[in-house]
Every structure is written in C-alpha cells, then in structure tokens.
Fold:
Amino acid sequence: MFSMTVLPQRVEVFTSNTIDFKRHFTYSIEDGFVDNLPRQFVAGTESDFLLSLTGARVIQGNPIAGTVPYSGKSATFNDSIPIEKMLLTDFVVPKQGGNALYAYGTGVYFLSGGSSSSFPFFAVYERKSMEVISMVYYNLLYPGVEVPRNTAATRIKYCEKENVFYISGIMSDQVFADMNFSDIQGRSRGFILKIDPTLLQAQVIVFTPDVLPTGLAQVCSVNDIEINERENAIYFTGVTAEDQFTGYIHPMVGMIDMNLNLQWCYAYDMSENRFSGIDVEFGEREQSLFVLMNAETYPFSIMELDLLGSVIQNPELYEFKIAACGSGSAEAYTGAARGHILHFTDNGGLKVTGNCYILVEHDMQQ
Structure:
C-alpha cells in the first residue's frame, strides 16, 4: 500500500441542450431538488462503443419528475477529430441544504481513443441545467508498464464535513477485455482517490500486494465505497486474487479512515464460485454491512458482515426464471444477471438493481 498526490489535467468540453433520454451501459441516478422541488437526476454515456468514431463521446444528464424527463444537457469534446472518449460510471449530488448548485461525476477518460490508455476523471456540472463547468483527469496508471493500459473510476462519494470527494477504482496493466470489469485480465490494483474540489489535487491510496489479505495478490479492484453517517470511516468492497490462483477470485471488504489510512481488509474464501464484491451498504442504524456480490453460476448474492468484517450471515444465493420474450417459446430461462447497486430501505428491506440477460433465439440479450 502506498499514498501519493496526483495532479489533474484539464479537459475541455462543449455543452448543448438535449432531451434525448436513451442510455447505454453506463448510468447513475441520484435524488435532489430543483427550485425546492424534489427531482431525480439521471446521467450516463450515450454509447459505450469505444472503437466507433462517434461512440463514447457524449455524456448526458436529465432531471426527472416522477417518470417525466425534462430537458437536460449533453457534454461532448471541443475537438473536431473524434479521438477522445469518456464513459460516466457514477455521480453524486451533495445534500448541502437540499438545493446544492452543482453535481459531480466520475468515470473513464480515454485521451487517444478507445484502444489507448484511460484515466479516472472528475467532472463538475451545474445541477439545474446539467451544464458541465469543468472536467479534469488524473494521470494514474499501473506502474512499470509501457503498453496501453486502463484505469477506471467506479464510484464517487461526497464528505460534507471535510468538503472532499472520494473516488474508487481499478488500474490494470493492460487494456480491459470489456468495460463491465467482469473479466479482469492480467494484473491490477485497486485505489481510492481523495479530491479537494477547491484545489482539484488528489491524494490516493493504492492497494498493493503487501496489504491485501490473500498474499501476493495480482488482481485487485475497489468497486464501491460507502461513508458512514458520522463521516469518520469509509467502507469499501471489491475483488482480489492470489498469484497463480486456482481460478477463483475473492470478494474483498475493508475500511479506511478519512485520511486514506487502512484500518482492516479481509478477503472471503468462496471457492465454489468466482465471487466479486460489487456494492456495500449499511444496515439498520449502521450496525452491520450488506455486501452485494456477483458470481458465475448465480445472478447475484448478498452477505451480511459486522463493522469489523466478521460474517453475520453467509452469502444468500439468488436464482430466478425469466420468460424468453420474443423467442416464441413458453419455456422459462434461468436468469443470468449482474447486480450493480444495493439499497437498504426504510422498512428494513433490500433493493437490488442491475442488468438482466435472457435467451432470445439462442442469443443472449441484455
């Protein structure tokens, strides 16, 4: 594990009006207010086709009242040659007085096209109009490698007490096989950035093999972070695996303080499947943690831990059937699904959202 400061590189973007509401692959939704009226905000990348000349170049946001989308803004690059690419993975609306002026996003920025190295970015946009105010990327790459390689941000969280942002992610020693991060190739390291929005400089903790609970870990990613209500601790989840591991990756859960100091980190041995930690959420009164995990043979699973990482309830494995719409067959298909976000509800329940895949005429469709 090591910490350092990384400097931002500014990206110029062009903002335009739009009402188009279609989303591909990357998206996020947050609650907020516009003129003291409750709204939800949806933002995402219009296309994730990185190798297409026009793909992965537009990030778009819209406010929503109920199910009605309102006009928002789309942000594109100022250059006339479609080389730069960007994918939005998450954004956050600070709850400052319930009517904050700005929202903040993160994701993956490709400086020289979809097959080039990528970097995490930090973007600021005016919440009411969705107009992008600024966007910077951080030169954070897997060290000691000269070939194109990808670094991607996965989540962004805001700490009101310190007025700083935390961004989690993964840095790989090669280009991702796909942007779902479901098949991580080669070596990788997880990271968490701490960003001061007034300076835009960032501190970073990188999870190197010496601090990981699986020994000489070659695969690591931090997929989600969650700040507790007192804003004095950050819990995270992701994946890790040992060098020359036997085909299994392990879900990883840990805690750091607000200055990026590691407090504890555990991997959970579930050798019957390739499990990966996707989202972590506090339980009732922040007395426990729920960890959403994806696996190869089950759509998803959920595990409950105490605040020191001990297992309260072993993973509950979920399985369901889906009618293959459009196939002309009444036969139900075992649902293949990947969870993305887990929510603990006011009545003590859990909600999961993600992507579901069904078989349509022998083709898997999302």
In short: Residues 209 and 216 are 5 Å apart (CA to CA). The chain has no helices and 29 strands. The chain has one domain: 2-320.
